[in-house]
Amino acid sequence: MNLSWSEGRNGTGNLTATNLNTIVSIPREMNGPGIGTNPDEMLLGASATCYLITFAALLENAKIPVVALSMESQGFVDVTDGVFTYQKIVHKPNVKVLQLTEHEENRLSRLAQKAEQTCMISKALKGNVHIECHLQIEHTSDCQQST
User: Fold this and answer.
1) For every one of its 147 residues, what pLDDT tens digit does the chain have, with 9 covering 90 and above?
2) DSSP per residue over 42-100, as a string?
3) H helix or E strand, kind and range, residue 122
């Protein structure tokens, strides 16, 4: 990963990696220019994508028939005496499934929690950022399956 930066605190940077090329700056909420993405969004994005990829793999290995998998994640930051601290991340995965037994639904809930505990980013944040998972299971009659 390479990062170049210009013009001090309120400047912008260009972040490049093998499959990523984006502009970064301090977010408007922190009195920055709000151009491109920012470290807070990238941390939330890393946590969310790691969680969802881990969850998808666990579902596939468990052979739970998933029609669709999506997620919303939120990051919560505390500001005390001008110091910004990332406090909490809440993942809200939504799993669309065909009819499942009660046993399969309980297993699905356990796998959602296991994904949070085994994701590499969640483990890296452990002890510094609290991570919660609120699973939503949606039943559908759609026959197309994916994971």
Assistant:
1) 999 999 999 999 999 999 999 999 999 988 899 999 999 999 999 999 999 999 999 999 999 889 999 999 999 999 899 888 999 999 999 999 988 888 989 999 999 999 999 999 999 999 999 999 999 999 987 555 444
2) HHHHHHHHHHHHHHHHHHHHTT--EEEEEEEEEEEEEEETTEEEEEEEEEEEEEEES--
3) helix 120-125
End-to-end CA distance of the chain: 29
Instruction: Give the residue extent of every domain in the chain.
Output: 1-37, 39-139
36's tokens: 């491109």
In terms of Cβ atoms closer than 10 Å to its own Cβ (0-12, 13-18, 19+), residue 90 is middle
Give dist(CA 131, CA 116) in Å, integer: 8
Look up residue 42 and give its two tokens: 């990238």
What's domain 39-139's architecture?
2-Layer Sandwich (3.30)
- CA-to-CA distance for 133 and 135, rounded, in angstroms? 6
> Do the beta carbons of residue 71 and residue 114 sit within 8 Å?
no
